Amino acid sequence: MSRQAQGAVLLVLGATVLSISAFSTTYVNYVKPGFRPLLVGAGAVLTVLGLLSVVAGLLGRPGPAHHHGTRAAWLMAVPAFAIVLIAPPPLGAFAARQSGRPPALARAEPYAPLAGGGAAELTLGEFIGRVYARPGQSLAGKKVRLIGFAVPAEDGRGWYLTRMRIRCCAADALALEVAVQGAAAPAEGSWVAVTGTWVPWQHGVPDDYVVPTLAATGVAAVEQPAEPYE
């Protein structure tokens, strides 16, 4: 593989990383926003190395051509072209169905009381955390507003408001779900804001994880958030 080809592959990879992190917000479809400086730095380094390699190859003496090796090396750039040309969307309803793990409920101390005078906008993670917080029920009788995408229940009865949570990247995504009652299911995968109140369990907080339920008083279509993951 020629030095120019090696440099070109690095240049393509570096330019792609820069394009999705420094000049757009596409990177949040794959990693948490805090990784942006690292992506920009990595993209800049790859781009500079690619340029230096191409220039060095042009100034140096040409070596023997290895066409098969060059073609194989260019396959490394295929994912980069796919990201630029196709731009895979963030994980949605299909990924949520494959996520069978319940969320980790690490927080046990009580949450601060919610302010009155309207619906409190919460993340699904905070809503679920408040449901399971002991002691006290900070959500009892409180109107809340949650944003997520719609996922129909497997049995065809009802639907879930869902949001994917990631720790570092889309590979470790976990689905946060809240069952919605009292409202017709929106189109699968559509982003909505649901206003309503938590439906308490009859026998107190269960020992095993159970998806909490929200009695909806309103469902409104919304745009996908700039940061699709929690």
Fold and architecture overview:
The chain is α/β, with parallel strands linked by helices and 230 residues long. The chain folds into 2 domains: 3-88, no CATH class; 96-221, Beta Barrel (OB fold (Dihydrolipoamide Acetyltransferase, E2P)), CATH 2.40.50. It contains 6 helices and 6 strands; from the N terminus they run αααααβαβββββ. It has a 5-stranded mixed barrel. The protein is elongated, with a radius of gyration of 24 Å. Mean pLDDT is 83; it is low at 63-68.
Provide a brief overview of the structure.
This protein has 230 residues and is an alpha/beta fold. Helices cover 32% and strands 19% of the residues.
Strand element count: 6
Largest sheet: 5 strands, mixed, barrel
Global Rg:
24 Å
Instruction: Supply the CATH architecture of the largest domain.
Output: Beta Barrel
CATH topology of the largest domain: OB fold (Dihydrolipoamide Acetyltransferase, E2P)
Q: So what's the overall shape? A: elongated
Domain module count: 2
Q: What is the straight-line distance between the termini?
A: 43 Å
Q: Topology as H/E string?
A: HHHHHEHEEEEE
Q: Which class do the helix and strand fractions yield?
A: alpha/beta
Assess the beta-strand content as a share of residues.
15-25%
Specify the helix fraction band. Answer: 25-40%
Mean pLDDT: 83
